[in-house]
Specification:
MetI-like fold, single chain, mainly alpha, globular
Length: about 240
C-alpha cells in the first residue's frame, strides 16, 4: 500500500510540475487523436448524411457495412495499415510506418464508421421531419444534406464525441503502426501499457489521471454546449 501511495504521490507531482516527458506524450496524443477525429468527421458526416437521405442501389448494403465496421477490431486495422505501409506494401515508398501519420491513418479508419453510422441515424430522423418541406422548396440532394447537417450540428457533436472517445482509448492499432517509439510515437495509452508492464506506476498513473480528466472535460463541454443550444432553440 505504501508503494501505491508513493506512486500516486509521484504521479500528482508529475502532473502539477508538468513534467516534460508527460507533456510530450500528452501533446502527441492530442495531436494524433484530434487530427484523426477531424479527418473522420470530414469523411463520416457527409457519408452518413448521404446514406440517410440518398436512394440508390446498394444503399442498405452500405448501411449494414458501416454499422458493422463500428465494431472493427483495432488490431485488425493496425495489421491492415501495417501491411499497406510496410516496405513491402503498396504504400511503403511513402515511409510512413512508425510515424504519427500512420497512427492518424489507423485511428481515422477506426473512427470514421462510428461517425458515419451515428450521423446517418441523426440525419435520417431529422429528414423524416423536414422531407416534405425541403421537397416543396425544390432543394437538391446535396442541398438537403448540407441543410440537415447544419440543422443537426449540435446533435452531431455526439457522433464526434463518440469518435473522440474511441480514438483517445485506442491502444492496439497505434501500437502496431506506431511502434511506441519514445519521443516519436509514444502516446498516452501505449505509454500506460509500457510503464505498467515495467512496474513504473507513477508515469502510468499520471497519464491515466490525465486521460480520465480529458474524458470528463469533453463530456462536460458537450453537455454545456447542447444545453445552450436547447435554450437558444426555445428562446
Amino acid at each position: 500500500m505504501q508503494d501505491f501511495g508513493a506512486a500516486f504521490a509521484e504521479a500528482f507531482s508529475l502532473i502539477v510540475g508538468f513534467d516534460a516527458a508527460l507533456a510530450e506524450i500528452i501533446g502527441l496524443s492530442l495531436r494524433v487523436t484530434f487530427s484523426a477525429v477531424a479527418i473522420a468527421c470530414v469523411i463520416g458526416l457527409p457519408l452518413g448524411a448521404l446514406l440517410a437521405v440518398g436512394r440508390f442501389p446498394g444503399r442498405m448494403v452500405l448501411v449494414v457495412l458501416v454499422s458493422a465496421l463500428m465494431g472493427l477490431p483495432p488490431v485488425v486495422v493496425g495489421l491492415a495499415v501495417y501491411l499497406l505501409l510496410s516496405s513491402a506494401g503498396p504504400l511503403g515508398v511513402l515511409q510512413l510506418l512508425y510515424t504519427p501519420t500512420a497512427m492518424i491513418i489507423a485511428q481515422t479508419i477506426l473512427v470514421t464508421p462510428i461517425v458515419a453510422a451515428l450521423t446517418r441515424q441523426v440525419i435520417e430522423d431529422l429528414n423524416s421531419e423536414y422531407d416534405e418541406l425541403l421537397r416543396s422548396l425544390g432543394t437538391s440532394r446535396i442541398g438537403t444534406v448540407a441543410t440537415l447537417l447544419w440543422d443537426a450540428r449540435y446533435s452531431l457533436l455526439t457522433a464526434a464525441l463518440a469518435g473522440l472517445g474511441r480514438a483517445l482509448a485506442e491502444v492496439g492499432a497505434v501500437m502496431i503502426v506506431g511502434g511506441n517509439i519514445n519521443h516519436v510515437t509514444r502516446v498516452m495509452t501505449t505509454a500506460i501499457a509500457l510503464e505498467t508492464s515495467k512496474g513504473e506506476l507513477a508515469l502510468a498513473l499520471g497519464l491515466g489521471i490525465i486521460l480520465v480528466c480529458l474524458s470528463i472535460l469533453i463530456n462536460a463541454g458537450l453537455m454545456g454546449l447542447r444545453r445552450t443550444a436547447e435554450q437558444m432553440a426555445y428562446a
